[in-house]
Amino acid sequence: MKNNEPIICITDACNQKCLFCSRGGYDPADSPGRIKRLINTFRDSICVEGGEPVLAKDLLKWVAYAKERGTKDIILVTNGSNLDDTEFVRALLDAGVTMFNVQIPAHTPKLFDLLTRTKNNFKKRIAAVRNLIAVAGGGKVRLTFVVNSLTGRFLPQYAGFIAAAFPDILYIEINMLKVLGHVEKRTWLVPRLTAIKPGLLKAFKIFDDGGVKFLTDGFPLCLTPGYEHRSIDTFKLGHLKGTLYLGEKAQGAACSKCSLQAICPGLRQDYIKLYGTAELKASKKAPGPIIKKAANQLR
Q1: Is residue 260 a contact partner of residue 283, using CB atoms and an 8 Å limit?
Q2: DSSP secondary structure letters along 90-133
Q3: What pTM, to 2 d.p., does this model score?
Q4: Nearest residue to 55 via CA among 113, 102, 12, 112
Q5: Contact 56, 65 (CB under 8 A)
Q6: Mean pLDDT of 237-264
Q7: What is each CA distance from 79 to 15, 114, 128, 177, 239, in whole angstroms?
Q8: What pLDDT is attached to residue 26?
Q9: In the 3-class helix/strand/coil scheme, how is 245-274 assigned residue by residue?
Q10: How would DSSP label each residue in 176-241?
Q11: What Rg do the C-alpha atoms of the chain give, in angstroms?
Q12: Are 92 and 63 in contact (CB under 8 A)?
């Protein structure tokens, strides 16, 4: 797990129009000069994103450039387009990609099409992830899942599907929806956390029982009892002090009496604007064991 990898937006083109996209076509692609500066500045790791990065004609060139400059980890953040092509995956690996981060927004074709506003691409996405595991190895594949009001009612079913289909992935990151991009005009997509909490906890148990490692982002610790150590922010607050980007989140009144205040940034501020902070409840758990467990969760 890395600490907030610098993002290179290699293209603003995308072949999907996801309802929940936090970019929403508002972020322009980085200029060649900026891409070079980022690669030359950050030698530990970078994230190559879009739009959809595989649509960029110079993707392989920039990945190879980063590898030549000594970047240790080059992470491709993608919707999986063309990654069912074995030769293309090998070309990306040869160029220097060390990790594939693929978004799987749903566990059924119908819901997948609704969320991505595409047709008949679910099987192709699943085939892409299976091809990545076969060619690159599961240790170089991580998945991303964005929880929203359309998926929130099916969280256990989603977890069961992922655990059965991809038991060999490195891990899956479960993110709370951001009120950015397309979502700014679709705030109905933002679920109440207390409403999805029972299904979320069931999903976490299914992942644990299936041996699928997972991390969470955007879920306060008081709403994920028993799984506090799975929070990315908890790991960072416990182990990477002074190097955080937590400005998107804020604590509420209950947090002042919470024993976990120092390792939980609270709710997303865009969530607070919609629903307030009344769902937050003070915990009495000791933070030490949670911090220790968080450090070992992906080992």
Answers
A1: yes
A2: HHHHHHT--EEEEE---SSHHHHHHHHT-SS-HHHHHHHHHHHH
A3: 0.93
A4: 12
A5: no
A6: 81
A7: 9, 15, 9, 17, 31
A8: 59
A9: CCCCEECCHHHHHCCCHHHCCCEEHHHHHH
A10: EPPS-GGGGG-GGGS--HHHHHHHHHHHHHHHHHTT--EEEES--GGGSTT-GGGBHHHHHHHH-T
A11: 19
A12: yes
What's residue 253's pLDDT?
96
Could you tell me the two tokens for 20? Answer: 């929940």
Burial label, 78 (beta-carbon count in 10 A; 0-12, 13-18, 19+)? buried
The first and second tokens of residue 248, run together, are: 């998107």
CA angle 258, 264, 265 (to 5 degrees): 110
Closest CA to 214 of 227, 195, 225: 227
Q: Which residues pair with 216 in a beta bridge?
A: 174, 231
Domains and CATH numbers, the chain: 7-217 (3.20.20.70)
Cα separation, 272 vs 251, in Å, equals: 9
Q: Which of 75, 63, 53, 80 is nearest to 140 (CA)?
A: 75
Q: Which helix (H) or strand (E) holds 9?
A: strand 7-9
Q: What is the 3-state secondary structure (H, E, C) of 52-94?
A: CHHHCCCHHHHHHHHHHCCCCEEEEEECCCCCCCHHHHHHHHH
Q: What is the mean pLDDT of residues 175-180?
A: 94
Query: Order of strands, edge to edge, in the sheet holding 73-78?
Result: 7-9, 45-49, 73-78, 99-103, 141-147, 171-176, 214-217
- Whose CA is closest to 71, among 6, 158, 153? 6
